[in-house]
Amino acid sequence: MNMDVKLQEKCECRTDSSKFYNSLMNGDFRMKGECAVSLLLTKLDIVNVELSMERKRTVIQIKTGRLKSFESTCKKMKKKGLELNFPTAVERINDLIGVRAVCSYVDDIYAVADVLEQQSDIRILKKKDYIQNPKNSGYRSLHLILEIPIVFKGGTQWVKMELQLRTAAMDYWANLDHQLRYKKRKKESDEIDEELRQCAEVVDKLDKRMLEIRRKIDKL
Ligand code: 0O2
Questions:
Q1: Which of 132, 130, 115, 6 has the alpha carbon at shortest distance from 52?
Q2: pLDDT 10s digits, 187-216
Q3: Percent of the chain having pLDDT more than 70?
Q4: Cα separation of 214 and 81, whole Å?
């Protein structure tokens, strides 16, 4: 049994499952998604060069991109109470196509977002500032839901995607939180959630302190 079939079975999508799966994983959508990821990663490279020259240090440390798996898409749609089909997924799940950029300092995150927002070939649909307004879990990052144009089959199509901008410290917390979330048992869940929230506070303090140190050095 190949991997794709296994994922389909695991997903428990009863109606039209293979049609939904093929539209998401094998059709034009996937092709456009891969192009959109490459395009945004390239745009981030250019922003990084511009800001890094200006600030005389590296602004974006790491960039990654991915298309959401079928399994994870179904899971998220079920959680949101959505019908499992392709048009609903494209309309309602903003991070089917996602890019993440890890920046050196918190102010770099906003600088990168500002430069992208000024570009005529990027449409910002939604900005979710989980740094100013962290989630209950303690999660911090700046999310931009945006559209970029892909010229495909003779026409221009605006493709929606999510860009997550965060510091290395926020990324460290989010990665461990993500791992632990799947491992924790219901019984100890509240206690562990509280511990993770406290760790997120520590991470926030660390980011603020590193920024202060950098500002002191900038003034020298
Ligand atoms: P995965 O496995 O990372 O892909 P929206 O419909 O746009 O209003 P959405 O997309 O339901 O809102 O949720 P939100 O809160 O904007 O979060 C989108 C993504 O942010 C998540 O995708 C995670 O990647 C990340 N995220 C949000 N909250 C947390 C958190 O508490 N901990 C961690 N580690 N990551 C978080 P997915 O699909 O949930 O997960």
A1: 115
A2: 678 888 999 999 999 999 999 999 999 999
A3: 90
A4: 45
- Give the model's pLDDT for residue 152: 85
Ligand 1 lined by 196 (C-beta under 6 Å):
no
Query: Which residues of the chain, if any, have pLDDT below 70?
Result: 1-16, 182-187
183 C-beta neighbours (distance < 10 Å), count? 7
For ligand 1, is residue 137 a contact (CB within 6 Å)? Answer: yes
Distance between CA 24 and CA 6 in Å, rounded?
Answer: 16
Question: Cα of 59 to ligand 1 centre, how many Å?
Answer: 24
User: What pTM did the predictor assign?
Assistant: 0.91
Q: Parallel, antiparallel, or unpaired for β 97-103 and 155-167?
A: parallel
Task: State how far the Cα of 35 lies from the Cα of 216, in Å rounded to an integer.
Answer: 41
Structure token digits, residue 141: 């990052």
Q: Do residues 85 and 70 touch, judged by C-beta distance below 8 A?
A: no
